[in-house]
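[scheduler] slot 2 assigned
[scheduler] job type: sequence-to-structure, two independent chains
[scheduler] chain ordering preserved from manifest
[runner] begin chain α
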Amino acid sequence: MEWVTLLHLPKPKMVATDVDGTLIDHDERVTARTKAAVDALIGDGVPFVLATGRPPRWIDPVVDGLGYAPLCVCGNGAVIYDSATDRVLASMTLDVATLSWIADLAEEALPGCGLAAERVGESAHDAVTPQFVSSPLYEHAWLNPDDTTVARHEVIDAPAIKMLIRLPGARSSDMRAVLAPLLGERADITYSTEHGLIELSAPGVTKASGLSIVAQRLGVEPANIVAFGDMPNDVPMLTMAGHGVAMANAHREAIAAADEVAESNADDGVARILERWWL
């Protein structure tokens, strides 16, 4: 796409962005420039939505950095969360029978893997619901201070918004290549890091499906959305939006799906694009 064409894109009626590797920098901060750009679009009455693999309980630091509490598509599209009221508005889960089937399938296809499940309650920090449970074999791909280790059968004994499968030393893309053909249409599979971690959701649940729910709620057509992302779990959202923007640091699949490539998350890539309309 030519720069002159990009320059004359109509002002979006909604902006949606991934968080890690996209909106925040390598120190997990919302920079002053990014905050200023988001402040400007919000001040102009344009909805700003977070669309992330993070669960609701990991949204607070982003809200603090923005100084604004947006509607959020969490868990790769499985949860619609209102951070302003701390309410889970909707959730789409894998049922127990499907979780059990996936667990057996994964352990056979990916020997040595560990299993975990992400659950959600009525709010981000719902104490009634153990929100992240993992089997003894599960090794985290990142620091996770709120994990609860349980017996393997307890990981799959309640509906979950995501099942996570971890195989240390493997590449996530290779794991997906092995497991995806075996899943058929019983679950959606994606990944947000190449460090041996794949994430499974209910069939048809992606960031695009979650963002579509929010867009309908706000009366915005997909063609009028600008979306930002950097990893394969962002691809459905980048392709459904009227203008999909991948970061310079993005995975090749995200770059291939995007209409444009911005500067990296470390170089205020999101802000630089938003400043076309909001200076």
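[runner] end chain α
[runner] begin chain β
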Amino acid sequence: MERRTIGAAALAVGAVGLGCMPMSWAYNGSRQRGDESLRAVHRALDLGSTLLDTADMYGPFTNELLVGRALKERRQDAFVSTKVGLLVGEQHIVANGRPGYVRRACDASLRRLQTDVIDLYQLHRADPEVPVEETWGAMADLVRAGKVRALGLCAVGARGGRRSGGLHDATIRQLKRVQQVFPVGAVEAELSVWSPEALDTLLPWCEARGIGFLAAMPLGNGFLTGTLTPGEGFERDDMRARHPRFTGEMMAANQPIVVGLRRVARRHGEGVTPAQVALAWVLAQGRHVVPVPGSKQERWVTENAASSGLRLTERDLTEVAELPRALGSWD
């Protein structure tokens, strides 16, 4: 697989990463099977999808434990990204950016991941009660202590929905502040065919400064794969059950996006899928961009990894750019 670099430290990763969250959290709880997910992680590493993206809040904690089972055997093959800053309660999620907590959370993540260093440690969300510079300073101390190799920041604010200006203004303000404390290696934010808002300001800002960009949800939470049936419904613990683009009505209304991706896929030969076109589109947005599609099955990991070899033409890119905008229940 093609290799791409993250940040000024030029940390090398496979061009397509693996989002591990669906293996333990937020999607179809009844279909989460540890052994099956572990095989998916090993398959990703075999194919060169070296970036494994997790967080302590996924589960909580169980996702890091799962990834740690793979790392115990194959640490040298993997690039490990995990996150800090959010605590999960019964019915709520709260931020904690206190320096003492950050240090304890990092040590706990290292234990669960069965490793002595985290390649990319990301601030999941800034704590409104703690200056972000203090949190970032504690994270920088972890780099100096040899527990972390590089630091990253997850984008704040609402998910891509209405295409209003300034969606990522708050993230850029945070980035400017923490850059004064310690270099930002990567930013993780949603970027996909149906949520392209990062292209307006956030992606160019990162590119101009040599900051890597991890494209979260590059397959639109599964919609862009073309494998979801409108109106089929989701389990109660699946975050899509409450998402304004995943009502039966909106899924039906957004089908032209999948039809367009499928049309482009057909031009590239039998076996090319809408998901691969969607990932190839993300890869085409810059050499510093690494899509991180979530998956918990070997078959989807294999399909996603193959997208790194798909080169879209100018005609393809123009056609994708002209697809209708995604609709949500707010529309």
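[runner] end chain β
[qc] chain β: The first helix runs from residue 34 to 47.
[scheduler] slot 2 released
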